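Please predict the structure of the following assembly.
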Amino acid sequence: MRRFLAQWCGLLRAGDVFVALAGLLVCVYALLSLWRGGAPDGAVVRAGGKVVAEVDLARERFIEVPGPLGVTIIEIQPGRARVASDPGPRQYCVRQGWLTQAGAVAICAPNQVSLSLTGRAADYDSLNY
Amino acid sequence: MTPSTIELVPTREDRRIARHAAAAIVLTVAEAAIPLPLPGIKPGLANIVTLVVLARWGWREAVWVSLLRVLAGSLLLGQFLAPGFFLSLSGALASLLVLGLAMHLPRRWFGPVSHSILAAFAHIGAQLLVARLWLVPHDGVFYLLPVFALAAVVFGLANGLVAARLLRELSPAAAPQGRGAEPH
């Protein structure tokens, strides 16, 4: 058996081993980047029940959403989003911090603004804290 | 029957291409009989022939053998002009392009195994692209990428090793006087 294996290994050259390992690396990379569950790919902002913005999470930006109490500021960063500031009295949605999973929702009830993350493979329909 | 006015004289090269293509077609048909766990994952045994032809007779002949194999193989399996045919064709074309580049890598370090794995990746890459653009217009096809990539490494390695073995067994006797000693 060992002679058999050695015979086949003798056909490999240094670069071949390198290429095979690089191929395996591509596999692992593809596995990790494509099969992570619940990664969000977009954010939906609603005010007063109506969708006011639907954005992807590719680049950094701020969205200002007017509500009955004032302006709620949503901050988008690659792969995550949060309510940066809100005129509401208890600040629940602000203190929720960064939302990073598809299906996660931050609701600023007094100002009637909500931020939710969407994704192809959401693990949950809705996530609240 | 009236004698044909056109006479085609096959050259030695033509016969060699035909013989290699025939071997590749046999492997394609035989491979179709192997049950496989996932659609789209095949060992691609016929590529062993392409690799051997590439190493012994150059890129141009490898292109002929590979494309003839795709054409005739699909005709035999009833796949001609079906989606599977275009997937094979795109994969074969991409592999041939990559093989054309990979064969210029330094021979000392990169053998048929490297060629095989690189070609296998080109194959799945082109197939996924065609599938995404035409057959399944949804990013969901890329979820299969890790599986296909693993298959490319495993089968690329296996095919490359077999090709390297064949080349070693063929080379000492056949390479120098190969052209003359070919049976017809």
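The CA atoms of residues 101 and 115 of chain B lie 9 Å apart. Chain B touches chain A at residues 105-106, 108-111, 113-114, 117-118, 121, 139-140, 142-143, 145-146, 149-150, 152-153, 156-157, 160-161, 164-165, 168 (CB under 8 Å).
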